[in-house]
Write a structure and sequence with these properties.
two-stranded antiparallel ribbon; 3 domains; alpha+beta; three-stranded antiparallel beta sheet; 10% strand
């Protein structure tokens, strides 16, 4: 009993010293024993005085109702609170790999440079259990990350910097197409406004206002498929951890579900009415009379950015081939809502095709 009082006194002192924000774990009124609700005795081997390891520890409160009730019965969690079940999100088909790898180390810097080590995504790689993002206009995250220039950060200012901790090629050891540094470089011709604010006016097809000066977060797109479930990129039933379905196959039948993800921001009626591009409908639905099938938005548009073109135009090489006349694959903007394409698709050469 004496040791418990000493432990709680030390915990209270640490709270006062570090001035942790209200509602963070360490001073939450919902944790009835304060720090003692999480840290107990000597704890599990290799863990900082925790009764369980890695995600299983977090699932005590952020798991099933049964687990939450056990914490309430033990007097560690307030009986008046019902927390969301994050555990079920990691049981979905597409999820961050919290069960992979060898766990978190406070000394690690992800992603691992060595191919012999398995990259992982423990809860504490993205969340600091002692802190939370500030509610002021200048938000920051008390979790490490990488700046857009590749500089390691002890604390991330932007959400994407936390994502860069894994979704990059560290020290150029391995080169992949998934390098977010390149995909969201400031010198790219166009991007979804994640690392730099939008500079153009509202797109014709957008259902959500995103005028000049606005930005997006990675978690606006990569998040729960259930809008009523826990937010964030924990798990989704859709590929790429997206909020909605997105078919990217070269030959595909258009439907509200096929491009559910795109249509969540871009109005389907506007797209198929050719309000933003005079040949949208012809490309997406195809031309049955000519025997030309429809194709995915992904055939012409990159989801993150385009290094060379406006309007996120970056052709999917699995669907689009070189123009047989000029031997190039290229898009040229020739003005507002007009351009030309050099390529070959559905056995038809564009040498160029103009609109």
């Amino acid at each position: 009993m004496i040791m418990k009082k000493i432990f709680l006194s030390i915990a209270l002192l640490l709270v006062l010293l570090f001035q942790v924000e209200t509602n963070s774990h360490v001073n939450s009124p919902n944790l009835l024993e304060g720090c003692g609700s999480c840290h107990v005795g000597h704890g599990k081997t290799s863990e900082p005085m925790l009764a369980h390891s890695e995600e299983e520890f977090c699932y005590q409160c952020h798991g099933t109702e049964l687990k939450q009730n056990e914490m309430k019965a033990a007097g560690k969690l307030s009986t008046s609170i019902q927390l969301t079940n994050i555990e079920t999100e990691f049981q979905k088909t597409y999820r961050h790999p919290v069960v992979d790898g060898f766990g978190h180390s406070p000394k690690e810097q992800l992603p691992y440079a060595s191919s012999s080590e398995i990259n992982h995504a423990e809860c504490v790689d993205c969340h600091n259990p002692h802190q939370r993002a500030q509610s002021s206009s200048q938000k920051y995250f008390e979790v490490s990350g990488y700046s857009l220039s590749g500089q390691y950060l002890e604390s991330s200012v932007n959400e994407y910097e936390v994502c860069f901790k894994c979704h990059v090629d560290r020290n150029a050891v391995v080169t992949t197409s998934d390098n977010a540094f390149k995909q969201f470089s400031l010198i790219n011709m166009s991007q979804h406004p994640v690392t730099k604010a939008s500079t153009s006016g509202k797109s014709t097809s957008l259902t959500k206002s995103l005028g000049p000066g606005n930005i997006m977060k990675c978690s606006d797109c990569h998040t729960n498929d259930n809008p009523d479930g826990p937010k964030g990129p924990h798990g989704s039933k859709h590929r790429f951890l997206l909020s909605g379905n997105y078919d990217i196959e070269a030959v595909n039948d258009e439907s509200p579900y096929a491009y559910e993800f795109c249509y969540s921001c871009h109005d389907r009626r506007s797209i198929l009415s050719n309000e933003s591009f005079p040949l949208h409908k012809e490309h997406i639905i195809g031309d049955p009379l000519k025997g030309i099938p429809g194709t995915s938005c992904f055939t012409c548009h990159a989801s993150h950015s385009s290094q060379r073109n406006n309007h996120l135009i970056a052709f999917n090489k699995e669907a689009v081939k070189r123009d047989p006349v000029t031997n190039i694959t290229q898009y040229n903007s020739t003005g507002l809502n007009s351009g030309s394409c050099y390529l070959s698709c559905h056995n038809h050469a564009h040498s160029p095709a103009q609109y």
